[in-house]
């Protein structure tokens, strides 16, 4: 251990020493013809040496930024884990959907685990070089689209840290992440959809038919309420309602879709009962009364298994169809059969404000026209 006032040479250009009442380690060096002094914000000698080594590497490679110099207002010693927890609490206060919260939690937790693994404890110690190492690691492990999503989340995280003065400067402030191009995934045709539906009966047949003949998302189908009248057979509408909490839709909007005659035949034979969800899963050990909503994960597995039995490509790993492909089938089939795209977009609540067209801005679909167009779609009789 060093004594008070000792200056220890780390590498060839950086010296470290204890300074101030709290005996915080400080680094000093010459850069650009001037003497610089930078607080390392730690009282641990090993941690100070690690930072000094990283600092010298930046000096040698020309990546050092003078803004790292200590200011009169010292930064708080906040760990990456603490910053993560505070940021996620901040995001939760904004009433993010649970799925979005899980995505943010997973992305930042992965980064925290990486920092722990390389010995970077405090958020203020994260540099662009550390981030580059993490980016390279994730790119080797995950799909391009997944990595892009995580990088965007981390950029927002560090911006938040900088605004709350947890870091001297945002290391990602000048970083831009190009969104990867979406690759056309294709969709099953009507014959393939009919083949798959023929493999099912009961609640699973109803669930898959709703997805195929309304174009809604699986989560939207799962959250349909029986007790609140989301499925209105008399009015011939299915209402996708955005409710607070876990039942909030992806866009936060509510809309409705006409019920196609083929789908209505199925829905009309479902017995009336006092239940919460429109689609209840079969009884299980945890829910012996069968009063819980349909499990979409199990439906996904059954759907891909049925595809496999029919020798139809199934699963993303096999570049095949997944449950979400039924949403693509609905749009493709409707548009190919002459239904105006603006009408189909309204049924699926498809919006893209970045590429807004005149029809997006001015077209309004009346209830009468919506019902009329749905009856035109040739889904067949099953």
> What is the mean pLDDT?
87
Kindly give the count of domains: 3
| CATH architecture label name of the largest domain | Orthogonal Bundle
Number of helices: 14
What strand line-up does the widest sheet have? 1-2-3-4
Structural write-up:
By secondary structure, this protein is of the alpha+beta class. The chain is 44% helix and 9% strand. It has 14 helices and seven strands. It has helices spanning 45-61, 80-93, 98-117, 128-141, 144-163, 190-197, 202-214, 218-222, 261-268, 296-309, 325-336, 341-348, 358-362, 367-376, and strands spanning 8-10, 14-19, 24-31, 34-39, 231-232, 237-240, 255-258. A four-stranded antiparallel β-sheet has the order 1-2-3-4. A three-stranded antiparallel β-sheet has the order 5-6-7. A hairpin with a 4-residue loop joins β2 (14-19) and β3. It is elongated. The chain starts with 7 loop residues before the first strand and ends in a 6-residue tail after the last helix. Mean pLDDT is 87; it is low at 68-73.
């Amino acid at each position: 251990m060093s004594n008070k006032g000792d200056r220890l040479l780390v590498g060839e250009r950086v010296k470290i020493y204890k300074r101030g009442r709290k005996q915080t380690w400080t680094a000093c060096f010459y850069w650009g013809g001037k003497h610089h002094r930078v607080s390392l914000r730690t009282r641990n000698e090993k941690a100070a040496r690690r930072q000094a080594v990283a600092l010298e590497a930046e000096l040698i490679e020309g990546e050092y930024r003078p803004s790292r110099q200590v200011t009169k207002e010292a930064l708080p010693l906040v760990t990456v884990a603490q910053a993560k927890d505070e940021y996620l609490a901040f995001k939760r206060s904004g009433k993010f959907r649970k799925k979005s919260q899980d995505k943010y939690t997973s992305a930042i937790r992965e980064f925290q685990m990486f920092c722990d693994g390389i010995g970077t404890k405090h958020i203020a110690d994260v540099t662009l070089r550390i981030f580059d190492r993490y980016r390279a690691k994730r790119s080797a492990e995950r799909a391009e689209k997944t990595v892009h999503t995580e990088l965007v989340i981390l950029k927002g995280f560090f911006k938040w840290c900088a605004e709350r003065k947890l870091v001297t400067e945002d290391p990602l402030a000048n970083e831009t992440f190009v969104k990867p191009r979406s690759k056309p995934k294709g969709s099953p045709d009507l014959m393939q959809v009919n083949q798959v539906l023929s493999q099912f009966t009961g609640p699973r047949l109803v669930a898959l038919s709703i997805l195929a003949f309304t174009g809604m998302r699986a989560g939207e189908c799962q959250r349909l309420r029986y007790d609140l009248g989301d499925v209105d057979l008399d009015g011939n509408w299915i209402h996708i309602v955005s409710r607070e909490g876990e039942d909030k839709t992806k866009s936060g909007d509510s809309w409705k879709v006409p019920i196609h005659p083929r789908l209505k035949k199925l829905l009309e034979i479902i017995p009336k009962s006092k239940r919460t969800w429109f689609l209840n899963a079969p009884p299980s050990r945890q829910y012996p009364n069968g009063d819980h909503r349909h499990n979409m994960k199990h439906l996904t597995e059954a759907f891909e298994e049925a595809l496999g039995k029919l020798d139809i490509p199934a699963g993303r790993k096999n570049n095949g169809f997944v449950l979400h492909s039924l949403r693509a089938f609905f749009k493709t089939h409707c548009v190919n059969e002459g239904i105006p795209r603006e009408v189909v977009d309204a049924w699926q609540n498809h919006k893209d404000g970045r590429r807004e067209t005149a029809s997006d801005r001015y077209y309004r679909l009346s209830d009468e026209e919506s019902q009329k167009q749905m009856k035109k779609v040739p889904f067949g009789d099953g």
